[in-house]
Amino acid sequence: MKPQINGVNKTYNRNVHALRDLQLTLNSGLLGLPGPNGASKSTLMRILATITKASSGKVKWNGEDLKTSSSFAVLAVMALVLMPGTAVLLALRFWGRRAQRNKY
């Protein structure tokens, strides 16, 4: 599993830049993301878990664009590993989308 981040930007209120032109390819293994408060670590993790949308740029998981991906099972596992506290939110989003498609 290999996330690739190409030119990702996240802007709030048109002038507050959380991420600017982020370029990153992650390999397998243990990853730490250190930084001070306000360094946009959580913003990046939320974009990777598809909880927050990037303002621009592409995020791919094994070559598949996360914006159009239907691989929610992979994303759920990624969220559990990267952001344990958001697993419930991701599960609710998954089942909500599924219910909309199937019109339960």
Tell me the layout of helices and strands.
Blueprint: E1 3-12, E2 16-25, H1 41-48, E3 56-61, E4 64-65, H2 72-82, H3 87-102
Helix pairs in contact: 2-3
Structure, explained:
By secondary structure, the protein is of the alpha+beta class. It has a single domain (3-102), classed as Rossmann fold (3-Layer(aba) Sandwich), CATH 3.40.50. The chain is 34% helix and 27% strand. The chain contains three helices and four strands, in the order E-E-H-E-E-H-H. It has helices spanning 41-48, 72-82, 87-102; strands at 3-12, 16-25, 56-61, 64-65. It has a four-stranded antiparallel beta sheet, covered by helices on one side. Helix 2 runs antiparallel to helix 3 (87-102). The radius of gyration is 14 Å and the shape is globular. It starts with a strand and ends with a helix. The relative contact order is 0.18.
In short:
With 104 residues, the protein is an alpha+beta fold. Helices cover 34% and strands 27% of the residues.
